[in-house]
Amino acid sequence: MRKILRLIDKFNTLVGQTFSWLALVLTLFITYEVFSRYALHQPHAWAFDVMNMLYGALFMMAGAYTLGKNGHVRGDVLYGFFPPRLQASLDLFLYIIFFFPGIIALVVAGYNYAAESWIINEHSTITADGPPIYPFKAIIPIAGFALLLQGFVEVVRCVTCLKNGTWPSRDIDVEEVDVEKLKDMVHVSTEDIIEADAFITEKSGDKT
């Protein structure tokens, strides 16, 4: 059982990391479209649809990955002060009452939505001869299913925390930059930053 859960964790991590490259693809594509539109005077009518689909695919397929890394936004005003067992109890309750019913509904509705789109060979109607959107809609139930699998992993984490009193560790991937750690890495203190800021402000004032 533990091996299966770790496999789900690793699979969703791989999927999230793979689809994260769409951020770079999207950036390059928008840059090209802006250059083509304003420098070459050759805009592409389908560009808007493609941008939406790229961003939508990135957003949806990163959902399970973000859940696995505990990266979704939560109201930490009180939650962060609770002991681990109370946190796990709240999480477990919310997963059962809200998460699973919502995600199951997403998978079922998304499947019907995507199946209909494939049957009618749906294309975008925003522009004439719009690009096909049925592959994009197929991502909806796939992303929902990945979230559902990750939800089972998170429930097991909650149960483990209730038993042991501490949260089980997560695989280390990427983390937000800690300002204090960054200062230590570059050997800069808060006082150095304040002095540099004052120096730059003074020089800017001299120029004006």
Note the beta-strand portion: under 5%
Structural class of the helix and strand makeup? mainly alpha
> What is the overall silhouette?
flat
Low-confidence stretches: none
Largest sheet composition:
none
Q: What number of domains?
A: 2
Instruction: Find the count of extended strands (DSSP E, 2+ residues).
Output: 0
Count of helical regions: 9
Order of helices and strands: HHHHHHHHH
Radius of gyration: 23 Å
Describe the structure.
The chain is an all-alpha fold and 208 residues long. The chain has helices at 2-20, 22-38, 47-61, 63-68, 76-79, 84-119, 134-164, 179-186, 190-207. The chain has two domains: 2-175, no CATH class; 178-208, no CATH class. α1 packs across α7 (134-164) and α3 runs parallel beside α7. The longest helix has 36 residues, at 84-119.
SSE topology:
Layout: H1 2-20, H2 22-38, H3 47-61, H4 63-68, H5 76-79, H6 84-119, H7 134-164, H8 179-186, H9 190-207
Helix pairs in contact: 1-7, 2-3, 3-7, 6-7
Give a brief outline of the structure.
By secondary structure, the protein is an all-alpha fold. It contains nine helices and no strands. It is 74% helix and 0% strand.
Give short descriptive properties of this protein:
208 residues, flat
